[in-house]
TrEMBL record:
Top enzyme class: hydrolase
Upper classification of the organism: Eukaryota, Metazoa, Chordata, Craniata, Vertebrata
Name recorded for this polypeptide: Metalloprotease TIKI
EC number: 3.4.-.-
Keyword flag Transmembrane helix: yes
GO terms for biological process, alphabetical: negative regulation of Wnt signaling pathway; proteolysis; Wnt signaling pathway
Membrane topology designation: Single-pass type I membrane protein
Molecular function in Gene Ontology: metal ion binding; metalloendopeptidase activity
GO cellular component: plasma membrane
Protein function: Metalloprotease that acts as a negative regulator of the Wnt signaling pathway by mediating the cleavage of the N-terminal residues of a subset of Wnt proteins. Following cleavage, Wnt proteins become oxidized and form large disulfide-bond oligomers, leading to their inactivation.
Pfam name, any one: TraB_PrgY_gumN
UniProt source species: Pogonophryne albipinna
InterPro entries the record matches: TIKI1/2-like (IPR040230), TraB/PrgY/GumN_fam (IPR002816)
């Protein structure tokens, strides 16, 4: 479920890292390092004592990008003692609040707010996805105990109670390619889990409300 909700958050997130009393090699100045492993990095240094680091991530399975992340970024994360994420996806309250904010006001149903033809098309599409999902899943997923019915309910459960914008994001993630990567945490969630495992202090720079209210404020034409 955490991976599912993580994918709903906006596609570009930030990670703020505050490090211990140390400095990365050549990271305290703005000169471009000639080593390829140190190029194309989304890591920025905030010059202070101790230094802090500002890092950009993206909501894709971490396995797709991990091998391409420069070593200086990985080293900054490893040696930092405090890590701030966009949202704290390891906090049960965050997950609960994200779920609640996606719902229509009490008593309303998606069928009541969508045009009839769009609602019917949506319902048929979700029935198609549910039918196809077993064939989209990989043997590795099944070996880990991840079953199609459970996964469909985790992603699309209670869809008739969700606001249209969240249903749109949900539908966009219900593709064969996306389903095949379910069970693998997105990059920022993976880093949050690693930070917990390493007993780092963690926090968030945004509140759930700051993510939800702009999306929930869109009118139907938007």
């Amino acid at each position: 479920m955490r991976g599912t909700l993580g994918a709903f958050i906006q596609s570009c997130v930030i990670l703020l890292v505050r490090a211990d009393q140390w400095r990365l090699k050549d990271s305290a100045n703005c000169e471009l390092n000639k080593k390829q492993t140190d190029l194309n990095s989304f890591l920025w240094t905030i010059k202070r004592d101790p230094p802090s680091y500002f890092y950009g991530t993206i909501h894709v399975p971490y396995t797709r990008v991990w091998d391409f992340i420069p070593e200086n970024s990985k080293q900054a994360f490893q040696e930092s003692n405090i890590v701030y994420f966009e949202l704290d996806l390891t906090d049960p309250y965050t997950i609960s609040a994200l779920t609640s904010c996606q719902l229509l006001p009490q008593g309303e149903n998606l069928q009541d707010v969508l045009p009839r033809d769009i609602y019917r098309r949506l319902k048929r599409h979700l029935e198609y996805v549910k039918l196809m999902m077993p064939s989209w899943m990989t043997p590795d997923q099944r070996g880990k105990g991840l079953y199609a019915d459970y996964l469909f309910n985790a992603i699309a459960g209670n869809w008739e109670r969700k606001r249209p914008v969240w249903v749109m994001l949900m539908v966009n993630s219900l593709t064969e390619a996306d389903i095949k990567t379910r069970g693998v945490p997105v990059l920022d969630l993976y880093l949050a889990q690693e930070a917990e495992r390493m007993r780092k202090r963690t926090g968030a720079v945004e509140k759930v409300e700051e993510q939800c209210h702009p999306l929930n404020g869109l009118n139907f034409s938007q």
